[in-house]
Structures
1.
Amino acid sequence: MADHDIPFDEHLLVINSLSEETSTEAAQMILKMDPIPDGIFAANDPAAVSCIRELKRAGIKIPEQIAVGGFNNDPFSRVIEPDLTTINYPGHEMGEAAVSTLIRRLDKQEGASLNTMVLRHQLIVRESSLRKK
């Protein structure tokens, strides 16, 4: 947002448990906003899918009226209509790196300082964020 000079608006941030129920409630909150936002980014794919379902029930067209993106690249991100734009991240690789670091620390092979590790991620653009021209 900073790269594009878009100011942060705390009123547009919804924090919840990311359950189906709270994600549906978040979509209902979004529907009451005036104007409704251009897009939604959910912290996981199940929350994004719940939002899409609730928005569609209310007659909102995805992505024409609201673009939606998620995080995780869960298999069902390709089952919802429209297919969900998502971020694929290497969860398994992240777990292996964390366990390896923990084992080295426990074996005293690594000191108190921690290294920074960057794992590759990928934005997978699908229909839920593609505005039709």
Note: Strands lie at 39-41, 67-71, 85-88, 122-124.
2.
Amino acid sequence: MSAVDDALGQISQTPFIYPVLYKRVRRALLFRFPYSIFFVMNPKVVTVVAVLHQARDPRRWPRSM
């Protein structure tokens, strides 16, 4: 959990360093653990839409973004 907290802190401080993967969805990779955090940015809010193990197929989560 502390790795997720660290990644979320980094995302909140510098969200633009993470690549856009699909439309407005960006991905941050966790250090030391094979998980990805997918998020979208709005003018004042960063919304996490998924936290997935990297072995999972990200195309399986909803396309409602």
Note: The chain has a mean pLDDT of 85.
3.
Amino acid sequence: MKFLRILPAAILFLLPSCGTDQEAVSAQEDKITSWLQSKRIIDYTVSGGLYKYVPNSGRSSYHTDAEAADGDSVYYRFEAHIFASAPGELYYTNKPAIINSNPTINTTYWPLDRLGAKVGSTKMIDGLRRGLPGCRQGDSVVMVMTSDAAYGSDDVGVVPRNSAIIMMLDIVSVIKQP
């Protein structure tokens, strides 16, 4: 019986934190939209906390380049930053130009080879999982993600929980499934 008296108080104590997370995501959405507008980027798509655009989609080969779909393998180089109101601290990259120009980057734990993922089956953060389909070989892709599309309420390395992130990918190749 004592448990039943404590339960409502515990629920009331926990509810505000749920609202706070949603308020944080809403604030992140506003900051992402403001940043995109400040850069005069209008041709982006939005899907559940993922803001995606392809700055080089006007290239002549765009419509004939291989497009990633479920089951295809995508190989890419990328840089990832914490996003506050613009790209902030770099927390991971495998782009040689960035690594070579910044001697303070410790690459001891970072694989420098291009990364690969099989669309639809490789385990990854939700925003990247939803952002890779439709990418084409040769694309430069910018994906800005609210915390619920990124790492959520988990601290991951130097990325604090409930952080928005931005990933800038260069799609090296798309290997279509047979």
Note: Confidence is low (pLDDT under 50) at residues 1-19.
4.
Amino acid sequence: MLTHGGGPQASNVRRAPSSRRCGRLSALQVATYGVLAAVALVCGYVESLVPLPVPVPGIKLGLGNVVVLYALVAFGPRPALAIMLAKVCASALLFGNPTIFAYSLAGGLTSFCAMALATRWRGLSVVGVSMVGGVAHMLGQLAVVAFVLAPHVALGYLPVLLLAGLASGLFVGYVGRLALRATGSSSFMKGWRRRLAKDRQAPAGQTTGRQAKDGRETPERGVSGDSH
């Protein structure tokens, strides 16, 4: 089960700038988002090996969602959505089943939409955004429970799962905030993010300065998709 978290934070959320000028993803973007998706998948798998000692099945800390939260704040909603979908699909394919996929997809999509909207509220911190996502995730999964089993079953789990979403989401939010601070103060990560920003803002087919240096004047080939 995917979860998120929330809590107080001194600074507000700064959303990554959106760019619609490029119709392709550069190799650097594909590599970066692919690595993040792989890290999210590994975190989710490791977490599944150590279930929490709680009476309600499926409650987890949601370590993989730290990566989704990080991508949402650092790179914007489109990369974060792609990473979340890759994590959910790969996890269900490798370690789950159709039922787990339905629960994870419903919770992940509901959580993502709620967090993407929450980032537009300038007064809300990163941890607060994560808390909104945690609650929305539980509501999304409870909707599947109501559809598959019965509405009264979902209502019976509602109080426990909402509290679990807030608690585990609080953890995810603080870990995500630490990750954002750590990468924000790293000179290597600053340079990496500047290069990603240039790739996102460059018009399609434009030769980058690095390509011109290396003598490659042909436009860089990318993977079809939306750039952010």
Note: The helical segments are 27-49, 64-75, 77-95, 98-118, 126-148, 151-184, 187-201, 209-214.
